[in-house]
Amino acid sequence: MKNIKERGNQTGVTEFIFLGFSNHPELQGLFFLIFLVVYLVTLLGNLLILTAIRINPVLHTPMYYFLSNLSFLDICYTSTTVPIMLVNFFQEKKTITYAGCLSQVFFLVTFAGSECVLLAAMAYDRFIAICHPLRYPVLMSNRVCAYLATGCWLCGLVDSLAHIGLTATLTLCGPNQISHFLCDVPLLLKLSCSDTTINAIAVYVSSATFGVSTCLFTAVSYMRILSSILKIRSAQGRKKAFSTCASHLTVVILYYVTINLNYDQPSSGFSLDVVILVSVLFCIITPMLNPIIYSLRNKEVKVALRKLCEGYILSSDSSVQMSS
What we know:
Structural class: mainly alpha
CATH architecture: Up-down Bundle
Order of helices and strands: EEEHHEHHHEHHHHH
Oligomer: single chain
CATH superfamily: Rhodopsin 7-helix transmembrane proteins
Shape: globular
């Protein structure tokens, strides 16, 4: 087979075949249309958030600085998987090269790890804003925000480099079929014919560091936030305080529910369709919903987006009038 090459007495995989969506060959065209629309909505929604924050001085605050990082992460995350998936819908054999697979793993782990830490940083921002409002300008200065954002990206990058370094040392003797529509570290470990103990330990350490610890930190932060909100005497004050973190809390819950469903599945017992559905929710649907959640539940973002759209309409009308 052309996707297997000889290495002495061993065989090495040079490309992988994705089995995701292969159970429904008659629906490939429909799947392509659905995921194309979802991808375009994801790009448009997150780009609108980025643009609105960029051009509106009212949104030049730590909360929206982190939100712009989140939107950029969501664009990168979906762009790592969806384009090749869309191309493969038109291929009889849905393949990816070995180098392409490792590259996809690198970017997926980088962006997923960075988002876990970023959501925790956003929770810290809301904690300081509500529990220590007088110290907020000092504790969340522009320099601190830049350090936190940079730290989020570096954490994801270091974690990804560690996994890629370990994964690249594996001997993959076949089969070369991945029961998914993307490459990921646990999926490649199943294809290895060499010892994966160190790799498995690295996965558990990474999960504990970027999954459990950030989730606990976020949960504790919101427990403190809720306690402070309940101490506010006026109902209007409590509502206003909670509204500043409602969007982020919704995004956090959605993210951790879907990531747990995606990575904490039993090794057997689920059909391929269920596995694919859960991964679609985490990898594709969640990045699309994040800008929608912030747009619907955040008054300042809605106002900024409305002004952005009105400005675009006015500029378009002016261009039409000048041309006529």
